Amino acid sequence: MTTTFERDVAATLEIDSAHRRSRFSKGLGWGGVTIAVLWFTGDQIGMNPFALIEGADHMWDFLTRMFPPDLSYIFFLGRGLIETIQIAVWGTLLAVMFSIPLSLLAARNTTPLIMLPWFTETWQRLGLHLLVFHMTRMALNCLRGVNELIFAMIFVSAVGLGPFAGVLAIALHATGMLAKFCGEEIEGIDQGQVEALQATGASKMQVILFAVIPQVIPAFISYSIFRFDVSIRSATVLGLVGAGGLGFSLIKTMKLFRYYETATCILVIFLLVGMSDWICTKWRRKVI
Amino acid sequence: MNQESTETTAPLQKRNPTMISLKDVSKTYTGEGATEALRSVSLDVREGEFLVILGPSGAGKSTLMRCINRLVEPTSGSIIVNGREVTSQRRELRAVRREVGMVFQQFNLVKRLSVLMNVLSGRLAYQPLWRSLIYSFDKADKRIAIECLARVNMEHKAFQRADTLSGGEQQRVAIARALAQQPKVILADEPVASLDPKIARQVLTYLKQIAGELGITVLCNLHQVEYAREYAERVVGLSQGRMIFDGPSGKLTDDILQQIYYREAEAGDDHDV
Q1: What residues are paired with B45 via a beta bridge?
Q2: How high is the pLDDT of residue B272?
Q3: Complex ipTM, two decimals?
Q4: What residues in A contact B125, CB-CB < 8 Å?
Q5: Nearest chain A Cα distance for residue B34, angstroms
């Protein structure tokens, strides 16, 4: 009895150490491959710390030209500052509105719910709701994949120079992010609550309103606030392509070689981003 | 609660009319490890009956219940609830579901909504969509909800959030939600499996009262024999998807229990039913 038990223990220990050995050698192999790949890519893209050291005096030159910042220039930045915030507010707001229906389409468990009722049975049998789901996800990935600056350039050519192009650029990019995150959040909800509402005979829309939305609303608000913070940051550079905000002053002063004014722009951006971060953190903590 | 139970039925009949009628209902779950959860189950349940479905886990109790309100689509067979075929026609299905309340093992209350809101959500099927869009209910619905809460003695917690309640309280609210549908049938799927014995008895007492006083047909899944003996008028024994007993709880002998619970031991030879 005890001898068989001892033998079982020994066998288990043997298997365990075999597992450890194989894990160790696997780790070693993959670690080696990773280092080799990183080294190779670093070499390819010309990573060279010495270049940085050699170029230090150029950098120093650039910085000294910025110093001292021309603080009086701040009075010319007021409008850009307000515009930056306005772009972020409207961009995020539009994104929130777009992403409510899109996030429902981007979640496997709610796509069948928002299909038009008279098709549902056929759709579901053929798995077509999954097609809708994948197509939505793909579209969202496209939106997320394109940088705001590129969207801004497109919209500047469409609606002309100015903050409206910036608003549209932020709205599109943010929709991609918000709807994807919220779709994932919806996929993680407790399906039991959904089932309970379905069992009462509630319609699909009612199920979404009473079982899905209450479960995701805190996360949705939290993501939206986070996204607003990110939008502020993005909005500060949209001016580089003429889509309004502080970025325009930034690029203008640089092009005119008035670096002491550029420095003021950067300081104002620092301040804005810091403030927005601080406010958003507080705000989110309050919601959660 | 005004229960219009005699409206469609013949009052001259001495025994209550049939409320649920299952004929040769089978369900096979497809996919990997395809299992036959139900094998041609036929069952008639009368109005106002308190029926306990007894069986070990995996016997198909849950599937049987979910076939009745089509949370699960049966593979074959017919199900008639209150004279209406439970078809997969969307419109018809919702009308049937409205008459069939359900109580779950995990309570399945919407945790972030208030107790009252949860009970009111039992009224959704009676409501136009525009009202739901603004999360509003009319006075009559609110009245019904509060009455249902009072029936399970939970009206004093109406404005608390559902996730602040204890398990037993949550299950009582869930019963109130089912009652708010003014149903003909309540399906209770293992309603006491996650509750301690004292609270479990309380919940079962409420369910039994509902059947007795409101004339609602209650189907209750249980896996504990002692509760079945204590509460059931009629017991249906389920094992490996087959009905192997149907009778009053008094006739639930040890021999039959042995059959219900230990048939797995002789799995494979299920030709004998």
Answers
A1: B20
A2: 39
A3: 0.86
A4: 200-203, 206
A5: 18
Residue contact B90–A120, C-beta within 8 A: yes
B113 touches chain A (CB under 8 A): yes
Strands of the sheet containing B35-46, edge to edge, are B35-46, B18-29, B76-81, B84-85
B163–A contact, CB cutoff 8 A = no
Say what the pTM is. Answer: 0.81
- The residues spanned by each domain of chain A are 2-55, 70-287
Interface check for B124 against chain A (CB to CB < 8 A): the answer is yes
**What's the fold here for domain A70-287?**
MetI-like fold (1.10.3720)
| Contact residues on chain B for A200, CB-CB shorter than 8 A | 97-98, 101-102, 121-122, 124-125, 177-178, 181
DSSP code string of A147-166: -HHHHHHHHHHHH-SSHHHH
- Select the more confidently predicted residue: A115 or A34: A34
- A197 with B110: Cβ contact below 8 A: yes
Strand partners, B36: B28
Residue B89 CA to residue A25 CA, distance in Å, equals 59
Binning pLDDT at 50, 70 and 90, where does residue A16 land?
Answer: very high
The yes-or-no verdict on residue B14 having pLDDT over 60 is no
Q: At what angle do helices A128-145 and A163-187 cross, to 10 degrees?
A: 140
Could you tell me the residue ranges of all domains in chain B?
Answer: 16-99+185-192+217-267, 105-182
CATH superfamily of B16-99+185-192+217-267: P-loop containing nucleotide triphosphate hydrolases (3.40.50.300)
The whole-number pLDDT of residue A119 equals: 56
Q: At residue B7, does pLDDT exceed 50?
A: no
Say whether pLDDT at B137 is over 90.
yes
Q: Please state, in angstroms and rounded to a whole number, the distance separating the CA atoms of residues A74 and B89.
A: 68
Name the band, by pLDDT with cuts 50, 70 and 90, for residue B62: very high
By CB atoms closer than 10 A (0-12, 13-18, 19+), residue A276 is buried
Q: Say if B183 is an interface residue toward chain A (CB within 8 Å).
A: no
Collect all residues of chain A within an 8 Å Cβ-Cβ radius of residue B177.
196, 200
| Minimum-distance CB partner of A205 among B90, B111, B129 | B129
pLDDT of residue B13: 41
Strand partners, B101: B186
Rounded CA gap, A229 and A89, in Å? 10
The structure tokens listed for A68 are 């001292």
CB within 8 Å: A193 and B108: yes
**Mean pLDDT on A79-103:** 94
**In this model, does residue B270 exceed pLDDT 80?**
no
- Is B198 within 8 Å of chain A by CB? no
